[in-house]
Specification:
By secondary structure, the protein is mostly helical. Helix content is about 60%, strand content about 0%. α3 packs parallel to α8, α6 (about 125-135) runs parallel beside α7 and α10 packs across α13. The radius of gyration is 23 Å and the shape is globular.
Amino acid sequence: MTSRRDELDRNIVTDFSSRMSYGAYLDLDTLLSAQHPVSRPEQHDELLFIIQHQTTELWLKLVLHELRAARAAFDADELGVALKCIARVKHIQQTLTEQWSVLATLTPTEYAQFRDFLGNSSGFQSYQYRAIEFILGNKNAAVLRVFESDPSAHEVLATLYREPTLYDAFWHHLARTGLAVPRSTLERDVTVAHTLDAELLALVQSIYRAPEEHWSVYETFEELVDLEENFQLWRFRHLRTVLRVIGRRSGTGGSSGAAFLQRALEHTYFPELFAVRTWTGH
């Protein structure tokens, strides 16, 4: 006799001959057949390496989607919508950071069994990561050369390179609300990385000294600080994973490996929001 726990609920759909199924909606046939190990003979641990990076790219796609939406919300003076998008990005960042612990189970010996088969492919070549860096403000025209052989990726990056950043959109939003945002910020060349602006820092200081007068602005400052700090934690976890797996060897794409990742930790997207911490209270 079949126990009741083995029976399907009476209303569960079982015939998908003319209905959309879970697998069809997610296009699982495509998704689950997209892992193609290149090692010969095929090494057991390469699948981990592929899936780690593929899932990262899926999350980066969503991060970019949300950051574009946040920028558009700032442009439309919809601060609450922008903050909702940023909040979602922060949760994705936590997942991305925790995900490094899975790749860290890969030992140097296991990675060495397939590393040479990767050729010059490298995470440095992730155009979605570069796109996120561009929309947040770390713009570098030299990066575009890496993607000249991939026209679609190059166009995405070239477009974001020419467009204002999330930070730019935020300050323009605040200027429209009547805040005295300096012209040096509002009229800056958006194709270069934003650097510390003394006039802008003075404005940020005034808000931190009297947060109750501009609470929504003060709150957004802290959300942006969270966003950047999460990126730094992700970068740090990346660095530690690389050191654990390959030490200080150079990267497969020609980068200096851990040394390159170490330098990335020195960059800040929102310099005034971190500099203000040195001066607040003085």
